[in-house]
Design a protein that fits this description.
The protein is mostly helical. The chain contains two helices and no strands. Helices cover 83% and strands 0% of the residues. The longest helix is centred in the first third of the chain and has 32 residues, at 2-33.
Length: 69
């Protein structure tokens, strides 16, 4: 039963990360379209978005059942 709770927590966290990833995408797009002068800020946001994508991928692959089991 604890595994189901952990999986439910992971799924909830995964959804929150996906929302944050989409939000960052919108912010980055807006900053680029409006010609924002702080290119370092845009780069930091892009790196954060990439880290989120990596975390999302790891969590998703952790939810896939092991076929060798």
């Amino acid at each position: 039963m604890e595994t189901n709770l952990e999986e439910a927590d992971t799924v909830k966290w995964l959804e929150e990360l996906k929302v944050e990833h989409r939000d960052l995408d919108e912010v980055i797009r807006y900053l680029i379209e409006t010609g924002h002068h702080d290119l370092m800020r845009i780069q930091r946001l892009k790196k954060r978005k990439l880290r989120l994508k990596d975390t999302i991928s790891r969590l998703q692959s952790g939810l896939i059942p092991d076929l060798d089991a």
